[in-house]
Amino acid sequence: xxxxxxxxxxxxxxxxxxxxxxxxxxxxxxxxxxxxxxxxxxxxxxxxxxxxxxxxxxxxxxxxxxxxxxxxxxxxxxxxxxxxxxxxxxxxxxxxxxxxxxxxxxxxxxxxxxxxxxxxxxxxxxxxxxxxxxxxxxxxxxxxxxxxxxxxxxxxxxxxxxxxxxxxxxxxxxxxxxxxxxxxxxxxxxxxxxxxxxxxxxxxxxxxxxxxxxxxxxxxxxxxxxxxxxxxxxxxxxxxxx
Length: 242
Fold this sequence. Notes:
Radius of gyration: 26 Å
CATH architecture of the largest domain: 3-Layer(aba) Sandwich
CATH topology of the largest domain: Aminopeptidase
């Protein structure tokens, strides 16, 4: 029979990774005996894949049911992990490249067509898209170095246009909305501009109730309506640290 001392070092490795306490107790045995130090080392490595989070807890849960055999540990852990949702790659905000331009223009046309009709009307949306005004707006800002894109696993899912201290346009692809990407893109835009400016601003259509509620929920404050020949626009402002 193995002594408890044989498990102390591997058990500490598991504890250091934030794994469940029972994994480091006398319960950490298979159905026919205690784990070896090699078993603990293997489990601690596999548990580290989850960085001490729910994956690691699931690994330990599985390993507490095996028979002290490394082959069984590997097989069961791989099986369970293969059935768990994989972590999503982190979205990346980067400056747009020439080869991104056509994709971003199409993303904007598609999203405007699907989301802007309720507050701009069919005539306004059709003109903005079919006249080329949407594409021209994006390309002109790209030429000035104002265009950024949000990328996830090689796919462009959003775009950001900034002009000095102003967020000129912030858009998530219509097919990727309601996934928290809009809030993340806004946060990234704020970080980008607050690195240079104490106060930043943006505008949105007064009739775009969804956008108005979104910016208010994200901590922006209305500063008033803007004079315009077209639809009424609202200005929002935010200061660094507020």
